[in-house]
Design brief:
Layout lengths: L20 H8 L10 E3 L15 H17 L3 H6 L5 E3 L6 H4 L8 E5 L5 E7 L3 E8 L10
Parallel strand pairs: 1-5
Antiparallel strand pairs: 2-3, 3-4, 4-5
């Protein structure tokens, strides 16, 4: 009977896996900013201005759809407008002043129309963050005299 060395290493079967060239490029470029989607943040969210609970079903659905599309489809600033996101700038005036509270001076706020009155207020940071600032069911008055 042949002698068996129980301390000998047994060769392991390693199946060959062919890497598709496009997949190899993505693996290399995982740190490349162009292959990352936007992350959605509520770090700057203004709870005291929130009216999300007052949104009707249609507006709530539009809001969730736009947030889903930002997180799943947007890898560049240009993609944000291509998914139908309104990028109307909001100035630091009238009732909009509260939106700017505790934000840095270089932040540019935008609004997205969910309906005639309902709005999503946000800004986009250079590190691929979509920052939600407020969700309103009623539009702000911008003229202090009204």
């Amino acid at each position: 009977m042949p002698k068996i060395d129980i301390n000998a290493k047994v060769p392991q079967y390693l199946p060959r896996r062919q890497v598709i060239p496009a997949e190899a490029a993505l693996q290399k470029d995982k740190s490349d900013i162009e292959t990352k989607n936007y992350l959605i943040s509520f770090a700057s969210y203004k709870e005291n201005m929130c009216q999300i609970q007052d949104l009707n079903t249609s507006c709530a659905r539009k809001l969730l759809t736009i947030l889903r599309n930002i997180g799943n489809k947007c890898t560049s600033y240009k993609d944000l407008s291509q998914i139908g996101l309104n990028m109307k700038p909001v100035g630091n005036q009238g009732e909009y002043n509260g939106l700017y509270k505790n934000l840095t001076e270089d932040v540019e706020l935008f609004e997205h129309y969910l309906s005639e009155d309902a709005r999503l207020f946000y800004f986009v940071s250079p590190v691929m963050l979509f920052e939600v600032v407020a969700i309103r069911n009623k539009h702000f008055r911008t003229d202090k005299n009204k």
